[in-house]
Amino acid sequence: MRRLSLTARLSLLFMLAVAGVLAGSGFFFNHLSQHHFDELDQQTLSVAAAAAERLLREAPPASRDGQLRALFSGQADLQARILEDGRPLFATPERGAAPFGAGSGEWRYEGRAWRGLERNVVVGQRPVSIQLMLDVTTHQVFSHQLAGWLWAGLGLAALLSVLLGWLLVRSGLRPLRQVTEVIASVSARSLEERIEQEVPAELRALVRAFNAMLARLEDSFVRLSNFSADIAHELRTPVTNLLTHTEVVLTRARSVEDYQENLHSNLEELRRMARMIDDMLFLAKADNGLIIPEQRPVALHELCASLLDFYELSAEERGIRFELSGEATLQGDVLMLRRALSNLLSNALRYTPDGGSIRLTLRQSEHSVCLALANPGGTIAAEHLERLFDRFYRVDPARREGHPGNAGLGLAITRSIVEAHRGRIRCHSAEGWTTFELEFRV
């Protein structure tokens, strides 16, 4: 079943609210008017009964009948009958117009409505019954007509409220339609567009959230575009080398040694391409949450010491010293952590000047484990620090093609491994020192 639009639902709710208020007001007003007429009728009967009782007690018997007729003659709608010991003592001339009801109450007779009152008194030690009845047909007809007009007015007001509510809601939702038009116009080529913030307060949170989403999409789209271009750049060099070497070898017949040398050269390029593809697959799995590290105790001091032993030979050739301090234990995957630290160490060795020192510091607290790796070298500008962990990103554009053994994916892989271990990685660079800080929650 097709659901009603927001405009239709708000219009109906507005109509129901207006109809409910009017119905409640009409019911209260009608009930109040009926109560008012009932009190007037009851007051008329009570005053007449009190006056008749006073005449019966105070008027001489000779003039009593005349005074009673004078009392009731001015009220055409009022009928009276007075009984003494069950015998008629007085009755208005129109007493045959309608039979008296039994005591006080209401009744109908020949299409007319009557309200009665009976009062028993003692006059001269004799019981006297004063019976009155009042024609209230006019009041009831007025009440019925008033109720009819109220219900008719309620129906008309409901119809008008639907129309008015539809107009008001449509006018009120105009900013939402404008936002919808802007959203509908957004495409991959117009991600830089933003919705204006001059909207009603109810839509500001939606607009801010949508603008933030557009910013994230634009950033992701730019990164994806750059990533595609970077892949083409990185793969172009080994593919070009393979083509060039193969074409040169095939220009003429060569010896077996020449063919072997060319195949070894091609093998190096193929290995480089295979490492790049493996790294990209690893990052793709990390982006989709498919990298789930093992949870085993890892002694970080021992892990760092074994890595430093591995890089010791390369460091000694350039006079670089390693400094390791601190103890820490972390629940994680030792192979993945080894790969992440190896990427950081190889990166530090690459940019540390000859004769420098690389410092590894471990700290453990109640809630976290921290590892800091600092190396001397050129200071990295602040605008590059956040992008160091992007794929294929290099601070120096002149080195865009990269080192044959470095595709520019090491720091990106390191960040993925750290985040898979519920940690975060930051980089600080100042006064000729660059520090990578890894923090893990425990």
UniProtKB/TrEMBL annotation:
Its main location: membrane. The chain crosses the membrane at residues 149-169. It comes from Pseudomonas flexibilis. It holds the Pfam family HATPase_c. This is Sensor protein. It is a multi-pass membrane protein. Member of a two-component regulatory system. Its EC number is 2.7.13.3. GO terms for molecular function: ATP binding; phosphorelay sensor kinase activity. InterPro entries: CusS-like_sensor (IPR048590), CztS_silS_copS (IPR006290), HAMP_dom (IPR003660), HATPase_C_sf (IPR036890), HATPase_dom (IPR003594), His_kinase_dom (IPR005467), HisK_dim/P_dom (IPR003661), HisK_dim/P_sf (IPR036097). PANTHER family: SENSOR HISTIDINE KINASE CUSS, SENSOR HISTIDINE KINASE YKOH.
